[in-house]
Amino acid sequence: MDLIQTITLPALGSHLLVGLSRAMILFVVTSGMSFVLGVLRVPNVAHGSLYMIGAFAAFSISHLFGGGSIGFWLALILSPFVVAAVSLIAERSLFCHLYEREHLMLLLFTFALMLILGDLVKMVWGADYRSIMAPEFFRGSVTLFQGPFPRYNLFLLVVGPLVAVGLWLFSNRTKIGKIARAAAVDREMVGAIGINVSWVFAFAFVLGCFLAGLGGALVSPMVSITIGMDHDIIMEAFLIVTIGGLGNMWGAMVGSLIFGITQSFGVLLLPQFAIVFPYLAVVIILIWRPTGLLKSVW
Amino acid sequence: MSKGIFNLKTFGLAAAILIALAFLPPVLPRFYIYILAVIFVTALLAMSLNMVVGHGGLFQFHHGAFYGVGAYTAGLMLTKTSLPAWMGLVAGPFAAALVGLLIGVFCVRLTRLYFGMLQISLGSLIWAIAFRWYSLTGGDDGIHGIPLPSLISSSTGAYYFCLILLAVCLFVLYLIFKSPFGATLLAIRDNPERCEAIGINVRRHQLIAIVIATFFAGIAGVLFVVVEGSVFPDLLFWVFSLEVFIMCLLGGWFTFAGPIFGAAIMVSLRTFVGTYTEYWTLILGIMLILLIFFLPEGVWGYLLEKLGPQKRDLHKETK
Amino acid sequence: MLRVEGLHKSFEDFKAVSDAHLTVEAGQMVAVIGPNGAGKTTLFNLITGQLKPDRGRIIFNNEDIGRLPPYEICRRGIARSFQIANIFPRLTVFRNVQVSVLSQQRKSIRMFRPARTMAVEETRNILEKVGLTDKGDTIAGALAHGDQRILEIAIALGNNPQLLVLDEPTAGMSAEETGATMALIRRLADEQGLTVLFCEHDMELVFNVAQSIMVMHQGMTILQAGPEIVHNSRQVQECYLGGA
Q: Which of A84, A136, B102, C224 is most buried, by CB atoms within 10 Å?
């Protein structure tokens, strides 16, 4: 009986919106992972750690600048670059030497990176919960579907598609983007026409990590920033990328939407097991379409 | 050529080690006995994983799921039902193998990375359910104080139980390794396409390997319950599975006994490093990187190569 | 024994094989020739099951095998070697062949007897026939290229086939090795009553060995006939000299 009463149109609507905004964060993060997966053909297990660093960096930067509006915007802009720098260091010092090896080795390297970054974050920021406040403008909520909808979430609903469009333009309209896409499909050919494939990989990896950092910065006002964030998000990212189609950016969008919305509806229907809904959806999709909903890049 | 199934030298060595281990409990402090028992359990788990990864070439990324299923089955049956204890213990591996079969049927349709990803998805679903079904599984806390038969509930009892089971399982695994099935698996690892062309139903062989491996993982799960007296959802969490993967790599996944060393090293390091610093994960990560760069054939693999090039199977990677 | 009728296979827009025909009689040595890209390997892949045809039939011993997976086709008596050395690089030469024999004996699932004692005679025989006996314990990946190609053939022989399908068996070999390999194939065919279907680039080689030659061009069968006729055929000469 309770169940029927909770499924009213406004409730559906507001949960849908929450799901959508969560999906946007997931999309920003997973688009980065998908990009790396497409070009390097390796899932970056450390992607979650970089997301976490993005959130912690946003916290630190925002506090450095007084914690107010300016602090927040600076954090949002600068943290992805911090994360990108970290990833570049990891890539150029170690990762790039593995490009000739078996893919499994690359994957294990990213796992090692996750372990190391996880503890480094613990060392630098400690195990306490941190939090950051959104700027004045984004605090509070608007009334949508007869319920309160946080303003910040609206912001996310705008940012998500912006990132999607930006990434799409980048991949399809810029020279570097096109080279990266070509390398995803046939790296030998790209190498054969004189392009330094190693730099293409470096670039793709750093860009992917930049997006992870951006995701972390974007999520920072919404959640408690803590050291378990990497594990949680990487699991979800893996699944999203798999159901979307490996390496496919639109797949990441579709996957994120499915994930975000099913989780949201899960909260509506069976709060205790909300977390199971997206996993179930993933399982069903993968059994039906094992290689993902959209075409994988390779 | 040597007679019988075993190389007499290997058999003799293994028997000697077994006997030596059997005499330890009266001599060592309880803590060390406990650690050794944990090593036995972990070694069995790693060996079972290696059957599909090192010898079969499958990307079994979520082996821990089956370990967890075995442990939870035993744990739940021992705490929630009034069935005899031994039933709970025996049910564990069968439950694990059943889940392994179910998940395997879907995963073997796919190649390599997709196999791994789908397995992670399905395994994570199990984790999510265990994590959230508080009333049944105790959720995040897990189940504690599982009643065990007095014979195996003591530290020493658990030790011997694990040692005996480990020895039996290793024996069986060795037989399989040396059998035509084992040889076929190695061939499938090297070149599945070629296997199809010589009349081998690759998927069926892989599925059989998965069921066997998950059965042994289930046994390891039951042993975990015996040693710890508890179950946690962490066993089902994907990160743990990757740690087991590392154990195989650390030991040498193209060898037979490598994972045992990997497990022993990992458990020992974790225990002793853990007393000095809380940054064990960092050390593990660095270790893994060193392994990838300098010792991809693993510790045992490296030693074997050094001891003599008479070893039949190669430890090098192919692309 | 083998009959291919009206076979078609396209990849997206590219017609790899269109309207191919082939007949192989028991005991024959049949060659498929044609310039690069003519579709020979695709045809072979269709016959041995790595690819499924879009249209057409492949009949082996009165059974339509077009839709069967490769391992089923192998079990019916067709064994194959590949153009690029497709061996088991981390296993020894002996093991490479042994696995094949065990598969043929349907013993690949046996778990409780040591492999070391099984199928030893048969494996040794094959190694002897192809001349790799002294390399039995070498890791296959370490073999010289020419030996790897011979190992390819040995693995196929392990299946005790009726029909041996060889995709460019002498690719990448020196002139000497080529001669030796073809002689070996000829000898095996005679001794064991094997039927052999192979494809080659080198026309001279083919004319000395094959009883029936099928010429392919741009995915189609131009003609199939004895060496004399093919040698003198205008059509064939045009393809090789004039065409792509």
A: A84
Coil, strand or helix: which one is C8? strand
The pTM (predicted TM-score) of the whole model is 0.86
Length of chain B counted residue by residue: 319
Cα–Cα distance, B105 to B148 (Å, whole number): 34
d(CA A216, CA B35): 39
CB contact under 8 A, B197 and C111: no
Specify the 3-state DSSP secondary structure of A155: helix
Complex ipTM value: 0.85
Cα A241 to the chain's mean position, in Å? 10
B183–chain C Cβ distance below 8 A for any pair = yes
Residue that has been written with the tokens 């009883």 in this structure: C211
Helix or strand run (H / E) with residue C111: none
Q: Does the beta-carbon distance from B121 to A283 stay under 8 Å?
A: yes
Cβ of B253 under 8 Å from any chain A Cβ?
no
CB contact under 8 A, C91 and B254: no
> In degrees, to the nearest 5, what angle opens at C-alpha B44 toward C-alphas B42 and B46?
70
Q: Alpha-carbon distance A132 to A122, whole Å?
A: 18
Considering only the beta carbons, identify the residue of B193, B200, B312 that sits closest to C103. B200
> What's the sign of the alpha-carbon dihedral A43, A46, A52, A57?
negative
Question: Could you tell me which residues come within 8 angstroms of residue B183 by beta carbon, excluding any fewer than 6 positions away?
Answer: C91, C95, C98, C99, C102, C115
